[in-house]
Amino acid sequence: MDFLKIFGREDVSSKDIAKERLRLILVHDRANVSPKFLEMIKSQLIDMISDYMEIDENGLEVKLTRMEKDDDVTVPALVANIPIKKVKHLAKI
Amino acid sequence: MGEVIVITSGKGGVGKTTTTANLGTGLALYKQKKVVMLDADIGLRNLDVVMGLENRIVYDLVDVANGMCRLKQALIKDKRFENLYLMPAAQTKDKTAITPTQMKKLCEELKRDYDYILIDCPAGIEQGFKNAIAGADRALIVTTPEVSAVRDADRIVGLLEAAGFEEPKLIINRLRPDMVKRGDMMDIDDMIDVLAIELLGVIPEDEKIVISTNRGEPAVVDESSKAGQAYRNMIRRLEGEEVPLMKIENIEPNFMDKLRVFFGLKARAK
Q1: What are chain B's domains?
Q2: What is the DSSP string of B85-116?
Q3: Is A30 close to B158, i.e. CB distance below 8 A?
Q4: pLDDT tens digit sequence for A40-88
Q5: B45-103 pLDDT per residue, tens
Q6: Which residues in chain B touch residue A18, judged by CB atoms under 8 angstroms apart?
Q7: How many A×B Cβ pairs under 8 Å?
Q8: Are A22 and B147 inside 8 Å of each other by CB?
Q9: Which of A9, A10, A22 to mutate: most B Cβ within 10 Å?
């Protein structure tokens, strides 16, 4: 997580930590996304992907974050981290 | 026709009441405006105490709303300042004792006779907040340079926009230039950047605020108080003057330059 990196580095001032945390909090607040909502997305992702791959369901992480676009504008982004155990070999149609 | 301004924040303890008292007193004293400070925090009234008028309450906001007395009977005239009045909140009732419709009607009535009606909004976003903003024309949002306070301010910005308020303005309270300088407190740009609303003013942390609250005399009348100076500048801005942000000691010059650029002001900071 970005956060831990920030905490680990001593040359980052506490106000920068505050600002980064605040930005992330506001992304959530403004998007009005509840943890329950994210859980729903998560379970549907598992269902869908399981048809093609065997995934580590416990290691699956879905979170709302910010992403910098090329023009220096940051936008909210939904990031899913899905550890793959095995790719299913589907019969070719 | 007067203007109704609600002073709000979401989070408690960031300085809504102090701000209401200082802006109200300043507008009456320095701008000779007829001002009513209305305490909308029913059940937890404090504006009377900050103003040192707690012993003069007979009727309150709820009495007026329910027709128990006439409007003028509940208005306390501050004898120290010409044209300054306080409408106290009820202390023994709760926020459901009045409705947004009643507040709207009350504000309309006050606007006929007074230049400014400043509403001290309770903390939170429930009924008390809805009552407080119901009759307001403009909104000021108070925050402090803390994650929790700015977060709540952001929520308020959203709710105010949803309620049809255009361009609420931000007041940053209790800024500590020494902490900003060493990178341990969010600076003005940080907060403006995150909240994306216009700034009305910045009040430095000042122990004179505590002292003035002890005495029940707003710091805005204290010429030696930095916070008082910040409030005096804000009053001029409310009246449409362009006043550069005061030079808060210990903030690097290039930082102040940045601010001036931000505000498009050429004048030197006082």
Answers
A1: 3-263 (3.40.50.300)
A2: EEEPPPSSS-GGGS-HHHHHHHHHHHHHH-SE
A3: yes
A4: 888 898 888 888 889 888 888 888 777 777 776 667 788 888 898 888 8
A5: 999 999 999 999 999 999 999 999 999 999 999 999 999 999 999 999 888 899 999 99
A6: 146-147, 186
A7: 36
A8: yes
A9: A22
Which residue in A14, A16, A25 is closest to B151 by CB distance?
A25
Is this prediction's ipTM beyond 0.85?
no
Q: Which amino acid is at A73?
A: V
CA distance B269 to B232: 14
DSSP state of A13: -
Q: Which two tokens stand for residue B64?
A: 């007026």
Q: Which residues contact B24 (CB under 8 A, 6 or more apart)?
A: B35, B36, B37, B84, B116, B118, B218
Question: Which of B84-88, B178-182, B265-269 is least confident?
Answer: B265-269
A14–B184 CB contact, under 8 Å: yes
Q: What is the pTM of this model?
A: 0.80
Q: Which amino acid is at B154?
A: D
Give the closest of B154, B182, B185 to A26, CB-based: B154
Q: Long-range contacts made by residues B45-48, C-beta under 8 angstroms, separation at least 24?
A: B45/B88, B45/B89, B45/B90, B45/B91, B46/B17, B46/B120, B47/B17, B47/B20, B47/B21, B47/B86, B47/B88, B47/B89, B47/B120, B48/B76, B48/B86, B48/B88
Phi-psi category of residue A37: left, alpha or beta, with phi > 0 → left and psi -120 to 50 → alpha: alpha
